Amino acid sequence: MQATPVASKSTPASFTENKYLITLVFVTSLFMFWGVAITMGDVLNKHFQHVLSLTKTQSAFVQFAIFGAYFVMGIPAGLFMKRFGYKNGVLLGLSLFAVGSFLFVPAAAAASFTYFGIALFILGCGISTLETVAHPFVAALGDQRTSDQRINFAQAFNALGAIIGPAIGSYFLLRNNTVGSTDLTSVKTLYIVIGSVIATIAILFSFVKVPALTDPHTVVTDPDAANVDVEPGKTLFQHKHFVWAVIAQFFNVAAQGGTWAFFINYGHEKMGFSDAVAGNYMVLFMGLMLAGRFVGTFLMRVIAPHSLLAIFAACNIVMCLIITQSLGWPSFIALLMLNFFFSIMFPTIFSLGLKNLGSHTQQASSFISMGVVGGAVFPFLMGMAAEKDVANAYYLPIICYVVIGLFGAKFYKVK
């Protein structure tokens, strides 16, 4: 692998280089596609409650299947990426994504929630692979000093996908929900289209030529600019900032999974919205995350990423306290704002955790991706709380934001 020249400390760090632009466009688009897939799962959660007569706790298995795949696939995806490269890692992820989508057809034909769980798990393995590969891939497409900006920029398109997912899901799945209906035709048709689009993207990406990236083993004059291990004698888990990033990511996605899974339930039960109207508000909910990503990327030019992370975590603790009080519109607005402040957390934790790991970077990406398994666990806990009162369920994410705040305030430091 050819080494890319590293900028000196006197050279301003650019966002990326011209030779990386086409690759950056393709990889950034992947963030949007898995954003669609994850938030579509939140709509499926509510849809399956209707057509398969599931309780809130049972329907949380949708999130368990998707996020549980991250735990299973994290290390294999990292090993595959390290052996065969970023591009082949992307192609593996897209292939699993497409296969999982197409498996919705037999699952719908059998009307089996178990079969849907298998399809969702394989789909989850695909998006887990994409996340494991895409974050270090984007970080490598330029100077390390601007990697936080690139990852947050790419994650803004993940937020765009998170807007598109609920919009499509609400229109095709929730709009025509009728009491007692067991029709799964709309689910089958929707996932045939998704699988076809993802398969097409995989074919197109196979023709993209990826330029040589920075060699993490090379000797550099400015370790701030390149992702090199400043203490190569340490094992991966002796890098404490990485360990804390894994912990913070676990709690971060735990909060995300639970918050998103019961957003529609909150709108229906506390605000009196129909499921379709609540689903439409979820589009605004995700739109605020998109806005937060762009605002956060801009603010990182003047505020250190770790400091902004701690500030946003503190804001979300306040939002959760307002949500739990069931104050009508003030609480619902706080629920919407939860996603604005959540916006920068995933990419910023990921980027801070990958700093100065050098040859450990790909392996580290695997473990940080595995931290996403928090999204498989937390919806069950929130679901049990939501069975009695959906507002009370939002006390639980406060624990998560405390951990994230500590990471941003103290434990992010490379030592």
Q: In a few lines, what is going on in this structure?
A:
With 415 residues, this protein is mostly helical. It has one domain: Growth Hormone, Chain: A (Up-down Bundle), CATH 1.20.1250.20. It has helices at 21-51, 56-59, 61-102, 104-110, 113-140, 147-174, 185-205, 240-261, 263-271, 275-299, 305-323, 329-342, 345-354, 361-370, 374-388, 397-411.
Q: Main attributes?
A:
415 residues, mainly alpha, Growth Hormone, Chain: A, 0% strand, disordered N terminus, transmembrane, MFS_TsgA-like, membrane, transmembrane helix, cell membrane
> Biggest β-sheet: count, sense, barrel?
none
CATH superfamily: MFS general substrate transporter like domains
Beta fraction:
under 5%
Q: Report how far apart the termini are.
A: 28 Å
Instruction: Provide mean pLDDT, rounded.
Output: 84
CATH topology: Growth Hormone, Chain: A
Architecture (CATH level 2) name: Up-down Bundle
Rg value: 21 Å
Structural class: mainly alpha
Annotation field: number of helices? 16
Give helix % range. Answer: over 70%
Instruction: Choose one word for the global shape.
Output: globular
Sketch the topology as an H/E string, one letter per element: HHHHHHHHHHHHHHHH
As for the number of domains, it is 1
Tally of strands: 0
Q: What top-tier CATH class fits best? A: Mainly Alpha
GO molecular function: fucose:proton symporter activity
Protein name: MFS transporter, FHS family, L-fucose permease
GO cellular component, one term: plasma membrane
Domain Major facilitator superfamily (MFS) profile: 21-415
